[in-house]
Amino acid sequence: MTPPAIRVAGLTRRFGSVTALDRVDFEVEPGTVFGLLGPNGAGKTTAIRILTTILRPTEGRAEVLGRDVVAHPAAVRRLIGLAGQYAAVDPNLTGRENLRLIGRLTQQPTGRLAPRAAELLDAFDLTGAADRPVRTYSGGMRRRLDIAAALVPEPPVLFLDEPTTGLDPQSRTALWQLIRELVADGTTVLLTTQYLEEADRLAHRVAVLAEGRVVADDAPGVLKDRLGTTVIELGMGEEPRAHRAAAVITTRLDRTAEREGSLLRLATPDGSLLLMDVLHALEDENLTPHTIAVREASLDDVYLALTGHRTGDTP
What we know:
Elements: E1 6-15, E2 18-28, E3 33-37, H1 44-51, E4 59-64, E5 67-68, H2 73-77, E6 80-83, H3 95-105, H4 110-123, H5 139-150, E7 157-161, H6 169-184, E8 188-193, H7 196-202, E9 205-210, E10 213-218, H8 220-227, E11 230-235, H9 239-253, E12 258-260, E13 263-268, H10 272-284, E14 291-296, H11 299-307
Parallel strand pairs: 3-8, 3-9, 6-7, 7-8
Antiparallel strand pairs: 1-2, 1-4, 4-5, 9-10, 11-13, 11-14, 12-13
Helix pairs in contact: 3-4, 3-5, 8-11, 9-10
Main location: membrane
GO molecular function: ATP binding
InterPro entries: AAA+_ATPase, ABC_transporter-like_ATP-bd, ABC_transporter-like_CS, ABC_transporter_ATP-binding, DrrA, P-loop_NTPase
């Protein structure tokens, strides 16, 4: 059996009286994308910082390719690449100069610096801007260069901390494709994200973090199936009507509807059958919905059901 590329067991980190990570456990298989999903303050970045040897854990253990991050930090650093939330490239150097500098800092062979920089500039569609100062780059170009810099030493494990935050949709889609190509070539990727769609599109497995704890860990499809295959959303127009409608659904149908302002949401495997029952029950109480939507369950629905709030919220 192939050992995991990343193993985390009982990982805990406290900052004074604040517990950022609370006995976190997960494993990442080689050559896959593992998503750490959660809102600001859930502990995602703290986990990344421990795994990349920037922070020491208060308790617990973390390993990258069998190397303990506390006992053998230098060995771990030789195996990983890291692209944090903010681009770490020098804005006054050109893209090419930045990549060559990273090559020297990571002690790559001198004769390999120029070819490796050229390879990455081409792979990340930056050849045309290679000899321009990075301060002239767009946000998407800087992000691509930052990830290219993390790949200069060809690390088998890559950590991406909210890699597409602040990018426009086109740049985000392009970056997703680059991540898929890296994984196809054998790289293991651990990424943190607030974007449900990102985790759904990229991750083979997702750990949902809430207030420093793992509240779910499975494949995205399994998490969605666990919630229910269909989501019914009823716009009631006003919060008092939504409150009354939720009470009717509970009393008449023995179902619980999540209420978000004037919107009611029900997850179910029954789909249209439940919708008909709900509409009949509400009509009897003169509570006809203003809007009705029926759609497939998403990771956003899973996260809301698990934590009681959306990933964009700060707990």
